[in-house]
Amino acid sequence: MTVSIADTNMSACDAVDRTQLNVTLHDNDGELGFYKFYYQLLHHWILDFNEYRIFCDLKSNRDPRRLPVLERCLSRTNLTSSIASTQSLPSHEVVLIQLCDLLLGAASSRLNDTLRDSTVKSAVVQRLELALGRELSPTHKMEEKFNIFKIRLQGGW
């Protein structure tokens, strides 16, 4: 599973090895697990003394409280920052969410080793790696331009 966020200076995605997931830890609720990982990505990316407006791709949730709960949890754990709003929007209407989806697809294909030569996705990955000066792979938390956070389900960063 990967999740992405972006602003004008940075993009990030969260990589989770599905084979190591234990859904019983999330009350056998994959949607709850998704939002817990989303929280982890955002929480560790939020910087002190900044204001954030979080825009997510519109997702049909079984539980409509998921996004408000995410916003409340982020607000309560990032006390020196302001979470001004968290909302979901249809990606086909928001260019930055579309860009996140493009970058997420590139990172996901590299991390999952599903990239095929001579495809458009391969060309995007090559161009992105050329611009970054490195292969798309998990990065250190403080990477400034394109973070790929690989969660270690056993703990640690």
Number of strands: 5
The helix-strand sequence is EEHEHEHHE
Structural class designation: alpha/beta
Radius of gyration, rounded?
Answer: 16 Å
Coarse morphology: globular
**Mind describing the biggest β-sheet?**
3 strands, mixed
Number of helices: 4
Q: Strand share of the residues?
A: 15-25%
Structural summary, described in words:
- With 157 residues, the chain is an alpha/beta fold.
- The chain has one domain (2-150).
- Helix content is 37%, strand content 19%.
- It has helices spanning 30-45, 66-77, 95-111, 120-132, and strands at 2-6, 11-15, 51-57, 82-89, 146-150.
- Strand 3, helix 2 (66-77) and strand 4 (82-89) form a beta-alpha-beta unit.
- Helix 1 (30-45) packs parallel to helix 2 and helix 3 (95-111) packs across helix 4.
- The two termini are 17 Å apart.
Brief sketch in words of this structure:
With 157 residues, the protein is α/β, with parallel strands linked by helices. The protein is built from 4 helices and 5 strands, in the order ββαβαβααβ. It has one domain.
Descriptors for this entry?
three-stranded mixed sheet, two-stranded parallel sheet, 4 helices, 19% strand, disordered N terminus
Explain the layout of strands and helices.
Layout (H helix, E strand, L loop, with lengths): L1 E5 L4 E5 L14 H16 L5 E7 L8 H12 L4 E8 L5 H17 L8 H13 L13 E5 L7
Parallel strand pairs: 2-5, 3-4
Antiparallel strand pairs: 1-2
Helix pairs in contact: 1-2, 3-4
